[in-house]
Amino acid sequence: MDPEHAAIHGGRSPRLRPGSETIVTRLADILVVQAIRAWIEQDPAARSGWLGALQRPQVGRAIAMIHREPARDWTVASLASEVAMSRSAFAARFSEMTGEPPMQYVTGWRMQLAEIGLREDGATVGELAQLGYRSEAAFSRAFKRHSGVSPGTARRTGKRLSRDGVTATRDSIKAVSWGRATSMLL
Prior knowledge:
Blueprint: H1 3-8, H2 20-42, H3 49-53, H4 57-68, H5 76-82, H6 87-98, H7 102-121, H8 125-128, H9 136-147, H10 151-157, H11 177-185
Helix pairs in contact: 4-11, 5-6, 7-9
């Protein structure tokens, strides 16, 4: 042990106690959320796009629901109903805040998760079709329409899909971490 660490720990080796890793992970989550909140409050540019939309009660709740449940059979009507808005008012506000229509956003989010699943998790087309598609063929068509390549080609070439600079984490395929982070931001 180097002298600096020996002085800090009274000459003994630090040891991790039960739960230490979980505590560190949670603290890191909190730090990231606080940094994002501070950035949003201080930078006017951060108040636009999907991140700015998270701050709006109804659109933010809709985005959080999409992120938490990407496989749900979302429609504009079902999203509007969930946030207590009319279909047309919701579609207009969502598009205004995010820069894209609600269903385009849903598809884009699903494709982000599919890309991660293909490249990093080795997910099959059948597994990824469960992201809200009725069949493997329907998913494959949507993926190719969105990215310009088939899922197999994307897996082999490692082609990254672009979505306005949004990068999801590896765990996003389950939409757990991201759903939790979006909820904490709201």
